[in-house]
């Protein structure tokens, strides 16, 4: 393993993928009850991790893990040609983030929600998943723009295979940047 083959953005995405795997085992949804009677206090708490809250929990974490694995493969001597490059990583991370947000909005409610001794809702794992997803989106976007990509021409990034770190050629019909040569008609 040679980490010098990975750029900063690739390292960050690899760490995000690893953290997503760890996050999948943290509490995502919890329910707790505390009852107080004269002289006696008791309660219970239960929580579910990403693997227990349904596909809206484990699928986005696997998506972020897959991104992390793909960007780390060059450190193990494997080159990956991915259509879209950084734009694809950012897009997959965006989809993963939206899935987590939708899962958060659809967590079950507690029937006696007006009971002050019962609480239920999203837990630390859900919050961390949203942050990891947004971080991966930002890194994907920064990688895409660092290679000369713009949101107006994002479709051009998917026209040919491209590995992260590989500079795309000029977009057809666009004036070339300095030092790239003439634009193709």
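^ structure tokens above, recovered residues below v
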């Amino acid at each position: 393993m040679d980490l010098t083959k990975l750029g900063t953005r690739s390292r960050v995405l690899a760490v995000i993928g690893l953290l997503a795997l760890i996050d999948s085992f943290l509490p995502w949804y919890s329910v707790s009850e505390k009852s107080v009677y004269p002289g006696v206090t008791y309660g219970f708490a239960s929580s579910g991790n990403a693997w227990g809250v349904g596909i809206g929990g484990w699928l986005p974490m696997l998506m972020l893990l897959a991104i992390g694995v793909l960007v780390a493969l060059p450190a193990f001597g494997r080159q990956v040609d991915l259509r879209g490059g950084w734009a694809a990583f950012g897009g997959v991370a965006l989809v993963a983030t939206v899935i987590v947000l939708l899962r958060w909005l659809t967590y079950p409610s507690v029937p006696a929600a007006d009971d002050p001794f019962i609480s239920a809702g999203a837990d630390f794992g859900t919050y961390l998943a949203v942050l990891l997803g947004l971080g991966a989106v930002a890194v994907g976007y920064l990688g895409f723009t660092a290679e000369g990509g713009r949101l107006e021409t994002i479709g051009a990034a998917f026209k040919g295979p491209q590995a992260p770190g590989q500079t795309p050629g000029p977009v057809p019909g666009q004036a070339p940047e300095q030092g790239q040569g003439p634009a193709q008609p």
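Residues 124-146 form the longest helix (23 residues).
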